[in-house]
Specification:
single chain, about 300 residues, 5-stranded mixed β-sheet
Amino acid sequence: MSEPEFDRAFEPAHGEAVPVAPDVVRVTAPNAGPLTFHGTNSYVVGRQTLAVIDPGPEDDAHWQALLKAIDGRPVSHIFVTHTHRDHSPLAARLKAETGATVVAEGPHRAARPLHTGEVNPLKESSDMDFAPDIAVAHGDVMEGDGWSMEALHTPGHTANHASFALNGSGHVFSGDHVMAWATSIIAPPDGAMSDFMASLDMLLTRDDSRYLPGHGGPVTEPRQFVRALRTHRRMREQAVLRRIENGDRLISEMVAVIYRETDPRLHGAAALSVLAHLEDLVGRGAVVTDGPPSIAGEYRPA
């Protein structure tokens, strides 16, 4: 299956502030893992009064590195792309330290209600205590000291995912929506494939020059990369349909074939991604199942 040209060449420089754009530095948390790559990227924007994007997980080493990058300067705004525990928890600590205003799309929520008997597999990964001071609508602009940030609603990975465009720079802080190193995990009920695809379509209406994601290095040709991601997802959808047409009925059977070359540690996440595709396909009438789509459900051609 064709893949976007992922770029896994990345030096995290844990504990250091790495310049990545004019008046923007990156500080990568030491929380490497199969879903976080080399760790979560926090960004510090500005010269005098600053903004911080995605303060990151509750980790003392990362907290100290973030304070070192801030270097005693005032922080006016904290922007949070979404409320997974590797991105948002330090926002409360940083707000208490600096008095900054916390900006996000909203508190954590699922993309849809839980079905009867369903358990959210990502509940423990979600920051349910997070509450922004300002819940931004799509297109809202927040002004700072020498910078302004436009909110772009990009649900899919989570229902409350937002990206933030640094106006006048061509840069977008894309969180986990678009990353250079891998595709985003879409895991129901936290996220939804239909939302993710619509968010990609929205990004293609823009003319940004560079994405600075929540993990890994920059996306340097965003329009080309987003188009490739969209094609990749459609190809995954076709692969799911082919497995069903060939007689697979369970998600585990589909994952074993479609993701046979993927790290087995990621097969649980892959199963959720297949479920996200199946939710979309059932909703469009292309696939049928008994009751609402579920991870243990059986699926048949329509």
